[in-house]
Specification:
Layout (H helix, E strand, L loop, with lengths): L15 H30 L1 H7 L1 H17 L2
Helix pairs in contact: 2-3
Amino acid sequence: MGASNGHPKPVTPRTSAMLRADIERTRAELATSVSALREEVAVAADWREWVRRHPYTCVGAALAVGYLLGSRR
């Protein structure tokens, strides 16, 4: 409910130029979002970045994997 009297707020008709402008703005926002997401995924998937951010965890995980692989012999 848009208005305080209980009736919905009237919708202002939009011209085709307004709709095109909205579509173009949405496309630009989407392109920016996709670009930022690509960058975040690239950083998250980079093992070197993981080691830089969490060196002790990575060393611990490497030791655990090495121990598990070595204990199977």
